[in-house]
UniProtKB/TrEMBL annotation:
This is Flagellar hook-filament junction protein FlgL. Transmembrane segments: none annotated. Coiled coil: none annotated. Residues 4-140 form the Flagellin N-terminal domain. The keyword Ribosomal protein does not apply. It is found in: Bacterial flagellum; Secreted. Its main location: other. PANTHER family: FLAGELLAR HOOK-ASSOCIATED PROTEIN 3, FLAGELLIN. The keyword Transmembrane helix does not apply. It comes from the Bacteria. Keywords: Bacterial flagellum, Cell projection, Cilium, Flagellum, Secreted. Belongs to the bacterial flagellin family. NCBIfam families: flagell_flgL (TIGR02550).
Length: 320
């Protein structure tokens, strides 16, 4: 079989180009540290790497969500810690108010202190986060959840009825901010009932108002002697129930914060696992790549020399 000059020339040229292409591909692996720089390098590994990256991106998103959830719940817990202290201060005053020897001035003095505690709790109930959103307003967080009537002092809840939830993992969603009604107007399952067996007052502010009304009323204005003590006892029961409810909410927050720590740990484990998988799929083996690079460089130089020698053959000179 006779080979034409053009065919011989083309075959040698193809050999040079192929060697150069392989050497350049290996050069890219050395510069990037990756053995898969485009899907055609290894279609199977490339497709698996895409899935691993998607899994890692989702894991990172849940990590951000958990950070936000932790900040929100920690802030709420801090506020409720102050609410707890305020309710306990109110309980101390109510114990003092139960003293039957108190004068009207003594009662008025206690009423002033109790009003101050009520104002503190109202201010805490209208707390905002760093972005000006009201924490206990549910999804109506653009306005204060609690308002106080300027004349009667009665406190009304105007916030949302649905607490704010956050998905913190693929199969876990938790409440990160409770509504004002869940915190300040709710009872636990073991709440103390009234002497007649009826359900006690759940509204913390109404409970305090019951005592304020009694303390501000002069002794001689009560129809009978038991009305005052009944009001104080009712307030005492209400404060106990409200305190238990706040502590129950705090217990839930504490449990969830602990769970978030565990989920973060699992997220870190997933990150390491995904990184290891991705590395095994696309990362270059430095020893093998360097060795291959050196061999391909020698092969390319040999191709150049062969092609150069071929151009110097007499056959080409005669055709020139």
């Amino acid at each position: 079989m006779r080979l034409s000059t053009n065919l011989i020339y083309q075959q040698n040229m193809d050999s040079v180009m192929n060697a150069q292409s392989r050497w350049q591909d290996t050069s890219v692996q050395l510069s990037t540290g990756l053995k898969v720089n485009k899907p055609s390098d290894d279609p199977l590994a490339a497709s698996q790497a895409v899935m691993v990256k998607q899994s890692q991106a989702e894991n990172e998103q849940y990590g951000v969500a958990r950070t936000f959830a932790t900040q929100s719940m920690s802030q709420e817990e801090s506020i409720l810690q102050n609410v707890t202290s305020s309710i306990q201060d109110a309980q101390t005053l109510i114990v003092q108010a139960g003293d039957g020897t108190l004068s009207n001035d003594d009662r008025n003095s206690l009423a002033t202190k109790l009003q101050g505690i009520k104002d503190q709790i109202l201010n805490l109930a209208n707390s905002t986060d760093g972005n000006g959103r009201y924490i206990f307003a549910g999804y109506k967080s653009d306005k204060p959840p609690f308002t106080s009537d300027a004349t009667t002092g009665a406190v009304t809840y105007n916030g949302g009825t649905e607490s704010i939830s956050q998905q913190v993992d693929a199969s876990r969603t938790m409440v990160i901010n409770h509504t004002g009604s869940q915190v300040f107007d709710a009872l636990t399952g073991d709440a103390v009932k009234e002497p007649d067996g009826t359900t006690g007052e759940s509204d913390l502010f109404k409970t305090i108002d019951t005592a304020l009304t009694a303390l501000k009323t002069a002794k001689e204005d009560f129809p009978n002697d038991t009305d005052y003590t009944d009001a104080i006892d009712k307030t005492n029961r209400g404060l106990r129930n409200s305190l238990n409810n706040v502590l129950s909410v705090r217990s839930e927050l504490g449990t969830q914060l602990s769970e978030l720590d565990k989920l973060d740990s699992l997220g870190d484990d997933r990150t390491l696992t995904n990184s290891s998988k991705l590395s095994s799929l696309v990362d270059a083996d430095w020893t093998a790549v360097i060795s291959q690079y050196s061999l391909q460089q020698v092969a390319l130089q040999a191709s150049y020399k062969t092609f150069s020698n071929m151009q110097g053959m007499s056959l080409f000179k005669m055709n020139s």
